[in-house]
Amino acid sequence: MDALYTAVATANGREGRAVSSDGRIDLPLGFPKAMGGNDQGTNPEQLFAAGYAACFASALGLVARQEKADVSEVSITAEVSIGKDATDGGFSLAVVLRAELPDHLEGEAGQALLEKAHATCPYSKATRGNIPVELVVE
């Protein structure tokens, strides 16, 4: 890969801070209440969900332009779940990507666009074969 951009961030644990090298991100981190935490900061799953949603929306826009489809008012919601991995006793992730598409892209046409975006999106490529990702047209 010929890198066009490299993001750099440093974190010191789930109950510390996450800081990007340019200072635009400087967030307290904390465990969510569902995992026994005090819910006093963001968590890696939220950060991953935000990044995946933004990247997938961009990939969908690219695919839609190629298909001459209007997705100017699209909204992507990424739901990132963490849970116990039954195979090794550790933790694993699962993702549901929900796309709110314009009425003319409901059903099979919208699902086809999502599948093409899923084949294009860098986050989808990184997770393919590693974690389950479900695509849902809302």
TrEMBL record:
InterPro entries in the cross-refs: KH_dom-like_a/b (IPR015946), OHR (IPR019953), OsmC/Ohr_fam (IPR003718), OsmC/Ohrsf (IPR036102)
One Pfam entry name: OsmC
Family: Belongs to the OsmC/Ohr family.
Entry protein name: Organic hydroperoxide resistance protein
Organism (species): Streptomyces lichenis
